[in-house]
Amino acid sequence: MVIVALIGAGAVVVALQIDASDELPPGIPPQPAAITVNPQIRAVPPNAPEPTPTGVQQAIADAVRDPALGEFTGEISDALTGQTLWSEAPTEPRVPASNAKILTAAAALLDLPHDQRITTTVVAGPDGQVILKGAGDPTLSAQPTGADTFYTNPARIADLAAQIREAGVDVTSVAVDTSAFTGPTMERTWEDADIAGGDITPIESLIADGGRIEPLDEYSPRVADPAITAGEALAYALGVDAPVTEETAPGGGQVIAQVQSAPLVTRVNDMMRLSDNVLAETLSIELSVAQGGPASIAGGVAAIESSLARHGFDMSAVTLRDASGLSYANRVPATVLDTLMGAAAGPAQPLMRSLLDGLPVAGGTGTLTDRFDPETNPGAGWVRAKTGTLTGVSSLTGIVQTIDGRVLAFALMSGGTSPADARPALDDVAGELRECGCR
To answer: Does the keyword Isomerase feature in the UniProt annotation (predicted)?
Structure first.
């Protein structure tokens, strides 16, 4: 042990002498230059080789025959030219699940200002009462100042409370005003069990943290009374013990506090990346109000359909009951989804381009974080797509850059099999597109 220690000590001395010397011993190559990071975004080459229908069909031939796909329809196209490269019953209306959110995002980005924000206010009521007036922003957060939030850069109830205190109001009670929205708060094809299941909360104009009981948990059960719950969060922040009630703020009442949501484009991207049903419904209502329509779930659906039809998309085979895809009564053909994705990725609709930013990245972000294993699927990191899942329904719509640098749009819709089986099969089809030049 002593000998080993002496040898080790000698090695350290030699190493220190070498490090301290300006010259390296003969035969030792010079130290290489330090690696420097040069982050940059490289544009897709405009002259990337164009895939052919035959090439695409050959590339995905085995993947599309997977029995796990069940009743399978789809379409693949060249985003630059719009040419259809492969299709299987693309005009058949199918249950889209959350792929319906692609229609919601497209309509919002086409017809609303991308920097539009929603303002939530507190209005002075009688005898020290303050009225929290919702305007349709479900990203409003009850999280304390500085704490993490589920949504990106949301408005906070804590900021409202701080403004009320600064105004010197001696608050005796808190009320909530939900009059900004009309109509039923639940679409009749939804299940009440979906509230406790974490899929939806009643769509009121005042909702905090998307109605989640656990604000940072994507799959948290939701509250059945989101407006009252938000009002209770404000009361707690103000130290008020009186029960929260529902009131209508007086017209022309004094606004004593207000906060603004993140811009529209941020909220659209949150909706897409997180597949957030509540945010999808409120975005559609925001669109309806901007078009002069009713501030209701049905009004939001009508606004999406009219907006996309006005911009030249064929909506004749589309049936929507909601903006989120939660309803099994929704029907959308694969060709509509593929056309929308191609329009966003290609030159046709530049206002839709930011839709791509919100798409989950295969094996990386959002609802694709745990899909596209990079050790087995070449689409990992290259596929960006919106997922859709209901019992017996799986869909995947997005874009992928081929090995030659060509961007393809795709819409893949599976039904009749377990999503646990169908999703890997859908991922395999998209992954094959990454690997091929498809010429």
So the answer is: no
